[in-house]
Amino acid sequence: MKDRVIIGAISGAFGVHGEVRLKSYCADPAAIADYTPLTTESGHTFAQVILTGQTKNGFTARLDGITTKEEADALRNTPLYAARDVMPAAGEDEYYYSDLIGLAVVDTGGVALGTVRNVMDHGAGDLLEIAVPGTSETVLLPFTQAAVPTVDISAGRIIADPPEGLF
């Protein structure tokens, strides 16, 4: 997963001629078309993405090889990935979600809290889903400067100062 970055998702068909509804996770949403070829988890590759319009939560688009509503519907909820080397470098204190997944999380005293399983953005701010060792439980940690003062990608760890009672 480190050689590619999720940059969007197909949310379903738009019309009857193979157009899709496309969600973009890019800082500049329209830039999703600039990072081709895009691939799916199953390995399907789209060499060309043409944005044809805007919808409430994204764009309408044409993907090469998709010509019918049925083909577009079959791709509903399909994540789209771009090669890591075509993406812009993350700025200072900026991270690609894929860089955070799998990092060990320790508290400010060095006690292991778990491992980052997922990063979520529900609009109010990012949350780190932390898998707690020895259980099937996960904890959602706000990804803020106060709760996560240090991210050390090269060392493979995050130092967290979670709110009282969270873990």
Provide tags for this entry.
167 residues, SH3 type barrels, 2 domains, 6-stranded mixed β-sheet, 43% strand
Give structural notes.
There is one protein chain. The protein is mainly beta and 167 residues long. The protein has 2 domains: 83 residues, Elongation Factor Tu (Ef-tu), domain 3 (Beta Barrel); 64 residues, PRC-barrel domain (SH3 type barrels, Roll), CATH 2.30.30.240. It has 2 helices and 13 strands; from the N terminus they run E-E-E-E-E-E-H-E-H-E-E-E-E-E-E. The strands form 2 sheets. The protein has a 7-stranded antiparallel beta sheet with strand order 4-3-7-1-2-6-5. Strands 11-10-9-8-13-12 form a 6-stranded mixed beta sheet. The longest helix has 6 residues. It starts with a strand and ends in a 7-residue tail after the last strand.
Outline the secondary-structure elements.
Layout: E1 4-14, E2 19-24, E3 38-39, E4 45-46, E5 49-55, E6 58-63, H1 69-74, E7 78-83, H2 97-100, E8 104-107, E9 112-121, E10 126-131, E11 138-142, E12 150-152, E13 157-160
Parallel strand pairs: 8-13
Antiparallel strand pairs: 1-2, 1-7, 2-6, 3-4, 3-7, 5-6, 8-9, 9-10, 10-11, 12-13
